[in-house]
Structure formats: structure tokens, C-alpha cells
Amino acid sequence: MNRIKWHTSFDGALESGVTKMMAIGLGKIDGARVCHAHARKLGMEAVIRSVGEHVLATGKVIGGLGILEDAYHDTAKVAVLSAASMIRCEEELLRLAKTWMARLPFPAVDVLIVDEMGKNISGTGVDLKIVNRGVINMFNPWPDAPRVERIFVRDLSTLSYGNGNGVGVADVIHDRLLKKFDYKAGMVNAVTSGSLSLMRVPLHFPSDRECFDVVANSVGKFNPEDITVAWIRNTLELGSMAVSRNLLATIPAGSDVEIAGPERQLEYDAAGDFVNSW
What we know:
single chain, alpha/beta, 2 domains, globular
């Protein structure tokens, strides 16, 4: 049983779902390590498909349950899959699930502020297909995602239990995130997947003001009014966000976007942290 959804770090007809659970989930840490190692040469989809077919051939799996979520993470469809048609049906369900996935509604942004990352949000802390990053220091590798110049992550989700795997995707992080870091948990995750760069610790500062100033001053724009900014809770919750005025004009006509509140200034408290807009 598993959610059927896009995988955060590769693209294919089979990504995250019941077949991946047979290949990597049932194999636990050793199976995950072996699958990821072979994927370096063969590609993750090919490994998941091959191992899944071998597991099905044993006759020990009689079926599966695929769960699809909409853009708000509500359960939108539950499908019972027989062993004989599991892989073919999962491919069809994945195509459907991809049409429901939430995305950032603009073509590009200079600074993306993310309130929290964590394993409960994405296997890589943040969904790489939302923030347009790759597992080996690739910048903007996904052609269907907005171009994101800089990423500032403010905190680590409590439900990640210290696992900061994926922190290397950020350009700058707040010190409060680093203080919650369980290096061993993240290290085991990175070594098992082979994506070591995901655990590289980026620049970090003790206040939001310092973090924001660093990323804003690194995008190559000298007039602060020209810098585009988007601020999200996390990469799972994209139903509402704060954006700079100049970003609104870049949202394509016909997009289902509503301006939900009045314009406000970006404010800091006495410690130099944001007065949270949420």
C-alpha cells in the first residue's frame, strides 16, 4: 500500500507508488541501498520496474492498494490493484496524479522562502520538482517547473525528528533549523540513497533578516524593487503563499489565482526575524 505520486528526484512512467514499495520499501535499508546503487547506472525507474516484476513473479504478492491525493493532500482516489495488472494500472494512475499536483503559479522567482522542510514533507526535505533542484547540485533541471534562483529555508519540521536530509538544496538556512539537526539520521538517509550532496550544510545565520539579505543580494539585481520573492509554508502546502507585488504581473493570464488579502510590508521583530505573515 502506498501513495501514487511523482517522485521528487526522477521522472518516469513509474515513480513513487506500490511498485516502488515492493522494490525499496520491502527491502528495508539494504534493499534501498542496493536499488539506489544500481539506479546510478540504470536509472531509478528501470530498477523499480525490474525488482517489482521479480517480486510479483514470486506469487507472494496478491495485490496492492494505490492512494491518490489532490493538490491539497486530501485523498482523491483509492484503487485496488491486482498483481496481474499492478504495474500497468499504476502507470495510468500516476499520469492522473501528476495532473493534480500543485505547482508554483509563476514562471520564475528570484528568492523562494520556505518556512519548513522535513521528511514528513518530502523524502528530500523539500520537493525538488517544486523548488526546481536536483539531487547532485543541479539548478533548475525540471523544464515544467518555475526557475528558482535562490532558496532560503527557515526551519525543520518537528515531525522530521531531526532528519535534515535535503538541507543541501537550500542556499541559506536559519540557525534554528541547524539546532534541530540530527546529523546521524540525515547521514544514514544520504548514504543509503547515495545522494551525499543533500546533506551539505549551506550558509546559515541567526536571523531571518541576515538570511534574506544574503540571498536577495546574490541574484544579480541592484534595485531591491526588482527582486521577486515568494514565501511558502512548505512544498506540500501551496494553496496559499505570500508574493512580492512585482511577481503578480508574471502569473499567466487565466491562472486560477486569487489575491486573498491586502498588501503588507515585510516586517522584522527585535531579533531580526520575520513577523510571520501566516
